[in-house]
Design goal:
Blueprint: H1 3-8, H2 12-20, H3 27-34, H4 38-50, E1 54-66, H5 68-76, H6 79-85, E2 91-92, H7 93-100, H8 104-116, E3 120-123, E4 129-132, H9 134-142, H10 145-150, E5 156-157, H11 163-173, E6 179-191, H12 193-199, H13 213-218, H14 245-259, E7 263-264, E8 270-272, H15 273-276, H16 308-320, E9 341-343, H17 348-355, E10 364-373, E11 385-394, H18 400-413, E12 420-424, E13 430-440, E14 444-454, H19 456-463, E15 469-475, H20 476-484, H21 497-502
Helix pairs in contact: 2-4, 14-20, 16-19
C-alpha cells in the first residue's frame, strides 16, 4: 500500500502516536506527550506494528519510583526540613515534638539524619536540647539532597542516576515507603523505514471514521473522504473465553444419550464395598477384586444405611445362589466388610443402585457419567482418576446381539472410530462378557469398553425377579481421545494455555 493510502488508513489514535515517535519512543513518554491513556497507546503500538510501521521492543530495567511516603514528603516536605524549621532557638526534644507536630518515629529519623549532616547540635543534660548549626541553616536555605532527589521526574531508570543520587537513594531506601527499585518491563517503539516516511506525511484530519444515520440523512458525507480500512492486515489473535474442550465433550455425550431416550442415573463418589463389588456378585475373596483396587476411606470407615433386605438377598446369592439355579460362591459372606467405605472404582455400582431402587422401570434404558478412582500406572492411556460412561437396558427378550450392535454404534457415533471389534472377556457380574476394542491411529488397538449380560445372581437379588439386562462401561477419557484427536490421555486435563486455546472442540 502506498504511503498516502497508508496514511488514510490510520485511526486518530495511531496518527497521534506515530507523530511523536521521531522524538519519543518510550511507552511512558508517548503517554505524556499525547495525553492518551496507557491502554490506548498500547493498542496503537500493536496496530502500527501489524502494519509494519514500527518495531516494539521489550526490555527488563531497574526502575526507581516513589512510594506513599515519598509522594507525601514531596508535597509537604521531609520531616528533617520540618524539624529544622522548628529550631528558631535551642529546644528540648519534648517541646520540639509538639511544635513540629512530627511522630516519634519521624523525630528519631530526623535526629539521626541531621546529626550525620552536622546540621544540628545535641546538648545532653537533665533533658536533651537540640540547636541548629550554620550547616543546618545552609541546608535549610539551599535544600537537602533528599529534597532535590524527590523533586526529580519519576519513574526513573536506576542506570540514569549519578553517584550522588545513588548515595541519596540508598539512604532513602533504608526508610519506610519513600522509594522503591523494581525490575520492570519497559516498552519502547522504533519506526521502520515505512514508519519514518509515514511520520512525515500530513494527515487529513477531516477523514470520516464511521457512517452515522445523521451523516446519511443530512448528506454531510458528500465530498468527504472516508478512512481506509485494510481488511488484509494481520491482527492479533483474540482468544475468547470458552468451555474446556473435555467438559464440552462430556456435555455432548450426556445430550446424545438423553436424545436416544436413556434416563440418566446418579450415585455417590464415596461408595461402599456392597454397591461397588458385593451387589455385582463379585466374591469377597475373588482375585477379580484386584483389578478394582481402590482407595478405602479412613473415617468414617463403615456405612450405616445399607438396605437390610437387599443385603440379605445379596448375601444369599454369594452363599447359595439365591434361588437362581446357581450354587453361588459357597463361602460365609462378611456383612461387616460389605459396609466399608471406598471411593467408587467403576460406574457399574450406579447400575446396581438403580436396579435395586423403586424407581426402576421395566422396560427401561439407563446411563450414567461417573468419575472413578483406582490404583493405576499413569501413562498415555491410563489415569488413576478417570471418567466412565456406562449403563444398561432392561427388557424381556433382549440378547447379546443387541449389545454388540449397541457397542459398535457407540464406537462409531461417539468416538468416530473406523476400525472396531468385539472380543470375548470376563467379568464376575456378566455372562457372556465382551470387550469393545477400537484402533487408534497412533496407539493401535486399545480397550474402550467392558460389557456383557448381567448374571441372574446379580439381577434377581436386586430386582426381585429374573429379567435380561445388557450393560456396558466405556472409558470416557479414551473415547474423548479419539473424538478430540489427541494421543495422550493426560492432555484432557492439561493447564497448558497454548494447547487449550488450539484444542479441537466438538
Amino acid at each position: 500500500m502506498e504511503i498516502k493510502k497508508l496514511a488514510e488508513s490510520l485511526n486518530p489514535i495511531e496518527r497521534k502516536v506515530v507523530k511523536v515517535l521521531d522524538n519519543f519512543s518510550s511507552f511512558h513518554d508517548i503517554i505524556k506527550i499525547t495525553g492518551l491513556k496507557d491502554i490506548e497507546v498500547m493498542r496503537a503500538l500493536q496496530w502500527l506494528q501489524n502494519k509494519n510501521m514500527i518495531k516494539i521492543k521489550e526490555e527488563q530495567k531497574e526502575i526507581v519510583s516513589l512510594e506513599d511516603n515519598g509522594l507525601k514528603y514531596l508535597k509537604y516536605g521531609l520531616p528533617e526540613r520540618i524539624f529544622l524549621e522548628a529550631l528558631e532557638r535551642p529546644i528540648s526534644i519534648a517541646d520540639l515534638e509538639k511544635k513540629a507536630e512530627l511522630a516519634s518515629e519521624e523525630i528519631a529519623i530526623s535526629l539521626g539524619t541531621l546529626k550525620s549532616k552536622a546540621a544540628i547540635e545535641i546538648i545532653k543534660g537533665k533533658e536533651i536540647v537540640v540547636s541548629i548549626t550554620e550547616q543546618g541553616r545552609h541546608l535549610l536555605k539551599h535544600g537537602l539532597p533528599e529534597e532535590q532527589f524527590l523533586k526529580e521526574h519519576f519513574p526513573r531508570e536506576l542506570i540514569s542516576l549519578n553517584e550522588e543520587e545513588k548515595f541519596v537513594l540508598e539512604n532513602l531506601r533504608k526508610r519506610k515507603k519513600i522509594v522503591k527499585v523494581e525490575l520492570t518491563k519497559i516498552i519502547s517503539a522504533e519506526l521502520t523505514e515505512i514508519g519514518k516516511k509515514l511520520a512525515k506525511e500530513k494527515f487529513d484530519e477531516d477523514l470520516i471514521e464511521k457512517t452515522t444515520p445523521s451523516l446519511i440523512k443530512t448528506g454531510a458525507w458528500k465530498g468527504k473522504k472516508f478512512r481506509r480500512f485494510d481488511v488484509k492486515i494481520n491482527v492479533p489473535s483474540i482468544f475468547a473465553g470458552r468451555k474446556q474442550h473435555y467438559r464440552r465433550f462430556l456435555d455432548e455425550v450426556r445430550q446424545r444419550f438423553i436424545a436416544l431416550g436413556f434416563k440418566e442415573m446418579t450415585g455417590p463418589i464415596v461408595e461402599t464395598d456392597f454397591w461397588d463389588m458385593d451387589a455385582l456378585f463379585m466374591p469377597q475373596f475373588h482375585s477379580a477384586r484386584d483389578i478394582h483396587q481402590g482407595y478405602y476411606i479412613k473415617e468414617p470407615k463403615y456405612a450405616k444405611d445399607l438396605p437390610e433386605n437387599i443385603v440379605k438377598n445379596v448375601k444369599a446369592a454369594h452363599e447359595n445362589g439365591f434361588n437362581t439355579g446357581s450354587k453361588g460362591w459357597g463361602y460365609d459372606f462378611d456383612v461387616k466388610r460389605t459396609h466399608r467405605h471406598i471411593l467408587r472404582t467403576h460406574d457399574t455400582s450406579i447400575c446396581a443402585r438403580t436396579l435395586a431402587s423403586k424407581e426402576l422401570k421395566i422396560p427401561g434404558k439407563y446411563f450414567q457419567i461417573a468419575r472413578c478412582f483406582r490404583y493405576d500406572v499413569i501413562d498415555a492411556t491410563h489415569l488413576s482418576d478417570f471418567n466412565q460412561v456406562g449403563g444398561f437396558v432392561i427388557e424381556e427378550g433382549i440378547n447379546f446381539g443387541h449389545l454388540k450392535a449397541l457397542l459398535k454404534m457407540f464406537a462409531r457415533e461417539f468416538a468416530g472410530a473406523e476400525e472396531v471389534k468385539v472380543v470375548p472377556s470376563y467379568f464376575p457380574f456378566t455372562e457372556p462378557s465382551a470387550q469393545l476394542m477400537v484402533k487408534h491411529p497412533e496407539l493401535g488397538w486399545i480397550e474402550l469398553a467392558g460389557s456383557g449380560i448381567f448374571r441372574p445372581e446379580m439381577v434377581k437379588p436386586l430386582v426381585g425377579r429374573e429379567v435380561p439386562v445388557i450393560a456396558w462401561g466405556v472409558g470416557l477419557d479414551r473415547l474423548a481421545m479419539f473424538k478430540l484427536g489427541i494421543k495422550d490421555i493426560r492432555q484432557l486435563f492439561s493447564h497448558d494455555l497454548e494447547f487449550l486455546r488450539n484444542a479441537k472442540v466438538i
